[in-house]
Amino acid sequence: MNNTFEYLKHINWEHIAFALLLLFLGYFLAKKISHWVEKLIENRFSKHLAILSSRVIYYGLFLLFSISALHEMGFKLTLLLGTAGLFTVALSFASQTAASNLISGVFLLFERPFKVGDVISIKDIKGTVETIDWLSTKIKTSDNRLIRIPNEGLIKSEITNLSIYPQKRDEIILRIDAVHDVNNIKSLLYKICEECSHILPTPKPQILLSQMIDRGGVELKVLYWSKSDLATVRDEVLSAIKITFEREAITFVNERIYIPTLPSSITPLPL
């Protein structure tokens, strides 16, 4: 007990209090300055660049205040720098994947194939970009799942940006029996497109006869443009097509597999 009291007497409490004050002040200033820089860059450039710059400034400023606090507490800065250097060398050898993701993040920063808030599709993943960090990108799907994709995977994959252009084109393929009048069906489909509130009048929708189908039938393509969610537009158009075709008694091509029978002169081989 006496040794403990003796040790506490030799502690410079003023330096420790000043070090804690530096940490608190550093955290507060780093938060405020990084937030101010983020808003400034976001207004002039992009949210992606703003977030990355904000984090660099925050960690940089807080690191400087932390080093100053450690110096006030009596730690040797040369020893800390030497240890940090050895740790950095060891970390660079042990984390080649992280370095690759970091470099890929820099390429994404300059190439900018997408930004925060864009809807993208990569492989089987489709969602809204939540954050773009140095090592990874986080995507929020429509069913509220957050998916983290390493930046190296993004650089090596084909990315479809679904938000970069406001107008998007969709198509619906219909296979209809040849007994029906194609021109009449085209008129009905044009009317459906005109009545759909989500389909743009310009560019004008197109109803094209794309090909003839075996066993009798024709294939029609309904092409239209929209600024709304394509899944919502497709649901509205298909619902209208179903109601109209049922009212007009328009039937589709039977897609059952046709198996030809053997001619009477040919005898099947025994099994």
Automatic annotation (TrEMBL):
Major place of residence: membrane
Membrane topology: Multi-pass membrane protein
Subcellular localization, as worded in the UniProt entry: Cell inner membrane; Cell membrane
Organism: Fluoribacter gormanii
Keywords, alphabetical: Cell inner membrane, Cell membrane, Ion channel, Ion transport, Membrane, Transmembrane, Transmembrane helix, Transport
Mechanosensitive ion channel MscS domain location: 99-163
Protein task: Mechanosensitive channel that participates in the regulation of osmotic pressure changes within the cell, opening in response to stretch forces in the membrane lipid bilayer, without the need for other proteins. Contributes to normal resistance to hypoosmotic shock. Forms an ion channel of 1.0 nanosiemens conductance with a slight preference for anions.
Record-linked Gene3D superfamilies: 1.10.287.1260, 2.30.30.60, 3.30.70.100
UniProt family annotation: Belongs to the MscS (TC 1.A.23) family.
Protein name: Small-conductance mechanosensitive channel
Transmembrane annotation, as ranges: 12-30, 50-71, 77-110
Top-level taxon of origin: Bacteria
GO cellular component: plasma membrane
A GO term for molecular function: mechanosensitive monoatomic ion channel activity
Signal peptide: none
Pfam families: MS_channel_1st, MS_channel_2nd
Subunit structure: Homoheptamer.
Residue intervals of the Mechanosensitive ion channel transmembrane helices 2/3 domain: 56-96
